[in-house]
Amino acid sequence: MFKWILYYILLFFICMSCSNESVNEYVPVPSPLEIPPFFQDNILAPVIPTDNPQTVEGIALGKKLFFDPILSADNTQACADCHAPENAFSDADRFSDGIDGLLGNRNSMPLFNLAWNYDEKFFWDGRVFGIEHQAFQPVTDPLEMNNTWMQVEQKLQQHSEYPNLFEQAFGTTTIDSTLVTKAIAQFERTLISSNSKFDKFLLNEATLTPEELNGFNVFMDETKGDCFHCHGSDKNPLWTDNIFHNNGLDATFTDLGLGKVTGDPADNGKFKSPSLRNLVFTAPYMHDGRFETLDEVINHYSEGLQNSPTIDPLMKKVAQGGAQLSTQDKTDLKAFLLSLSDFEFINNPAFSNE
Amino acid sequence: MRKTRFIFILSLITLSSCGKDNDDEVSQANVTFNFSHNWDATDVTNTNFNTIQYTNANGEELSITKLRYIISNITFQKSDGEIVVLDGYNLVDVTNSTNLSFSPVTTIPTGDYSNVFFTFGFNNEANYNNNYPDLNSATWNVPAMLGGGYHYMQLEGKFIDNTTTETGYAYHAIRAVDNSGATQVFENTFFEVDLGEVTINNNAIFEIDMNIAEWFKTPNTWDLNVLNNMLMPNFNAQVMMFQNGQNVFSLNTVNQ
Predict the structure, then answer these.
(1) Nearest Cα to A25, choosing from A159, A146, A162, A173?
(2) A216 versus A10: which is more confidently predicted?
(3) B137 shares contact with chain A (CB less than 8 Å)
């Protein structure tokens, strides 16, 4: 009899342990990425860390943080200052100036379609893994926000709104750097660009001009532009391989790029291929913003290549300076590249500080 | 009493049906294909990349900076003609040291096979009738102006040219296409790699070797000074790659 009583007590405790312990806990609302159909059909699924799922509250918090100068030491600089929506989340200045007026040596990278960076190597030199980890760096960089995470956490913790917003997004009012970067990463993953004229052309919703069509052929022709090997094709809407190449900018390097990260001399002078989407908004160009116009960029690949030990083998006719495109092909290539501009993306109110 | 006996018999049948099915275990085998690479018997991995250290049949010194290729359609054929084709394909990426081992999901019956082979590249049905998101994501496509579909191989590096200048080469294999006329003319340049007779007694691991030097050797002595870039639209170069590719692969061992 005693044994049976023991069983009942045990059963009671087991049942109790199964009950809903958090009836009052706020549960964030899942908000899966809206994957464009063309992406869905043609490329692999985006990378979403299992420990940072997209939620309505997380995204909203990340957006607020992205546009809030509270992350900087003197409350003057937000992420959006160097990643402005109207510039496809890049900076129109060659080098961004930080809160102390100091300049870096790289052009601010545009931010879109980041969830499809399958290798998850971020920055021009690939020095961090994952969007969450990327977001850690600008806050403490002396050339950027020049803050400490302890200060950021304290300011946010003492703020009238943030503790509640973190509670809603992550179930805790205790704010730390990990949760800040998780929220920012959630917002950044929503920055999806998929509505350029060329996207609509692929969906039979727009017609390209003869110049744009010829420009696309120059892009895809291995004997001409041969751009597709690094920047993808009509089957890959990212327009980048997200891989690191030396594209013949310099004969000697003042900035080692990937080589400084890996320590391998074979990586010297290599930088990530940027996406060719939204070029109309993202000038200046290259990792150091050395080219102010697309014409300069095209001229570089056509006549301006500099040989070096690590120049990519795909940079052909280096001895002649490059692909030697005709004036017409250059003009048409530029027209095609501009057809990858997504005006809906930069005007999307979900991505602006409103 | 009758009811109890019935339940007892039913339990016995049920329990015995859960027993280990040894027949099934011995009749199906998993196969794995490992891909190793060498330059005329000297092992090549990505740690050997980026340094000019190899000499091709034409006497040019060269390095490798990238090597990836696709194999597909692994087929086990019995003497009576019965075949088992394993699902899937594998993009071997030596540069990143990924997919050097491929274990298809499909199992094969144990027994004697008169011929085992796989396709280097894709046959035309696989190449043109499918859309592969993983390969699109790997920027593995061939432009529509060259017929579309996918690369078979990308072998890239540097060589010392006849002016002693370090020059890039991009030895990219695709289906040969002649664009010079009004209509495109194609020639098949995927090929079967014959691994010969194999008896499968158990789970098996095939060790496949690629001798990279052979791409430059037989029957066409490859002159990188002439053929180093823009080879995808070069019909004759693609046919030469196809011919040289016949001697590139070999079966080292099958471990069971």
Answers:
(1) A173
(2) A216
(3) yes
**To 10 degrees, the CA torsion angle through B84, B87, B93, B94?**
-20
- Residue B143 confidence (pLDDT) above 50: yes
Question: What's the one-letter identity of residue B136?
Answer: N
Q: Per the CB < 8 Å rule, is A319 touching B169?
A: no
Interface of B with A in 151-210 (CB under 8 A): 156-158, 165-170
CA distance B69 to chain A (A): 15
Using a CB–CB cutoff of 8 Å, tell me whether B136 touches chain A. yes
- Number of other residues whose CB lies within 10 A of the CB of residue B256: 14
Residue of B133, B143, B169 lying closest to A42 (CB–CB): B133
Question: HSE on the CB side for B188, CA within 13 Å?
Answer: 13
Q: Does the distance separating the beta carbons of B156 and A313 come in below 8 Å?
A: yes
Express each pLDDT in A25-64 by its tens digit. 679 999 999 999 999 999 999 999 999 999 999 999 999 9
Interchain CB distance below 8 Å, B49 and A266: yes
Contact between chains at B141 and A233 (C-beta distance less than 8 A)? yes
| Beta-carbon separation of B170 and A314 below 8 A | yes
What domains can be seen in chain A, in order of their start residue? 55-192 (1.10.760.10), 197-345 (1.10.760.10)
Among candidates A220, A309, A315 on the partner chain, residue whose Cβ is nearest the Cβ of B143:
A220
HSE-CB of A49 using CA atoms within 13 angstroms? 16
Q: Is A314 on the interface with B (CB under 8 A)?
A: yes
Confirm whether pTM is higher than 0.95: no
Structure tokens at A257: 């790029």
B144 touches chain A (CB under 8 A): yes
The verdict on a CB contact (< 8 Å) between B141 and A235 is yes
Find the Cα–Cα–Cα–Cα dihedral A107, A110, A115, A120, rounded to 10°.
Answer: -10
Q: How confident is the model at residue A354 (pLDDT cuts 50, 70, 90)?
A: confident
Distance to chain A for B190, nearest Cα, Å? 20
- Please give, one letter per residue, the 3-state secondary structure of chain B: CHHHHHHHHHHHHHHHHCCCCHHHHHHEECEEEEEEEEECCEECCHHHCCCCCEECCCCCEECCCEEEEEEEEEEEECCCCCEEECCCEEEEECCCCECCEECCCCCEECEEEEEEEEEECCCHHHHHCCCCHHHHHCCCECCHHHCCCECCEEEEEEEECCCCCEEEEEEEECCEEECCCCCCEEECCCEEEEEEEEEECCCEEEEEEEEHHHHHCCCCCCCCCCCCCCCCCCHHHHHHHHHHHCCCEEEEEEEC
Paired residues of B200 in beta bridges: B111
The C-alpha atoms of residue B24 and residue B15 are separated, in whole angstroms, by 18
Res B18 pLDDT > 60? no
| Extents of the domains making up chain B | 35-255
Residue in B with minimal Cα distance to A240 = B139
Chain A residue closest to B139 (CA)? A232
Percentage of chain B surpassing pLDDT 90? 89
Q: Calculate mean pLDDT across residues B100-125.
A: 96
Nearest beta carbon to residue A235 from set B136, B230, B233: B136
